[in-house]
Amino acid sequence: MNVAEHGLMFSIVDRARRSSAWLFHFNAGACNGCDIELVTCLTPYYDVEQVGIRLEGSPRHADILCVSGPVTRTTREPLEVIYSQMPDPKAVVAIGSCPASCNVFAGSPVIDGPVDKFIPVDVYVPGCPPRPHAIIQGIAQAIRCLGMKRGAAIAEKPSGKIETELEVA
Amino acid sequence: MNPLYALFALLIFPGLVYALPMGWLMLGVERRCRARFQGRLGPPLAQPFYDFVKLLAKTPMGRLVSDRGLFTGLPLLAVGSIVGALALLPVVAGGSGFVGDLVLLVTLLELPPLCLVLAGYASRSIYGEVGATREAILSITSNVPFLLGIVAMAWGCGSLQLTTIATATPWAVRIPALLTILICLPVKLRLNPFSLANAEQELLAGPLTEFDGPRLALWELAHGLEWVALTGFVVTLAVPWRSGIWWIDAAAFIVLSLAMVPLLALLAASTARFKIVQASRQLWIWGSLAGLAALGAAFYLRYWGN
To answer: Among A42, A96, B69, B303, whose CB has the most other CB atoms within 10 angstroms?
Structure first.
């Protein structure tokens, strides 16, 4: 973000928000496949901590909510509570095919999903399960939503900044 | 200690102007070193600063009116007491300190863990309560050897003034006393073998589970300042020589404080988390042994030394 155009404080906050995204991982009845792939991103091989991404234990600390799984009847209320506990600005990444479309569980009487019936989703990462690279790309796109120009960020072309940093990972 | 110097120490060196960037730098160096020891690249050195600004710029959730005072007051008290503790560190030989400032310094260093315990209980979260209980147990078990070491040093030189303790304690007392304080250091910084209170993932975030946005930013700030204060405390007590030229003393203080960070990161990266029983047993055994050795040496020197 341009300092001359937006002012110093604005660009510092924007930069800080883009380089320190804390994740909260919520399993809404997933088979654990996507969860394993998400945790893989935090290992030394992918090492997302070098762009400031960190897995947090509490939704109140988090910026990005990573949901995996179709929303089952028992996880629906916790999902809404956890989303409402996250302070703004926040983004939601739906990991895997289940939160996007309920996948093979569609039509089951115990499934209330998909996720976007209950909370707004910013980025979908399809796959059953998606590869860690795809998850990292999804999180990078969600980080762009966290910046100061939220509305424009979704529409704009990838700025390249975060992309190049993540290619190193 | 004249008022002008006290104000300088509180606001500039080793107070706020020095300790804020140094706290972020120390946290950054710790995270980066730990990542390197684990075979990762690690975040940039400015990462704690980014985290702080980001948390400060978040919109906090609404709170009950009864909670608001506690949730803002406790982290502010923690930050304030550590800044006060920093101002008392005897970095430069002349001009600083008064009789009994050791007692005040120890009190101010003990306030932040107490605030953390209160914050955990005030949050009324089950994870906060478990974290607060662990923090309270560890704080009591680590304080017995910590105070033993400090009492031994004060007794060894026969003074409660920090400048005298730093310069005049005999080595026979200083070495076991420093060993005791070093054993307690990872407990007070909540580093890995003793990271029970804030046990990441295991307890969500321990006592800080219910804190968000700017209030969490204040806790992060308090933690960074705690790093500066505790490493600085060890460095000032460990090095008896003061050149008398203030900038040489200050530079040595900064370099030695920073040099302690990779060592603590190595400890954190190479150990797994203790159970609470193991942690308190290890602290009681090794901490008390080292503390009693220091106290014995001080006792011996005092009555039969001359």
So the answer is: A96
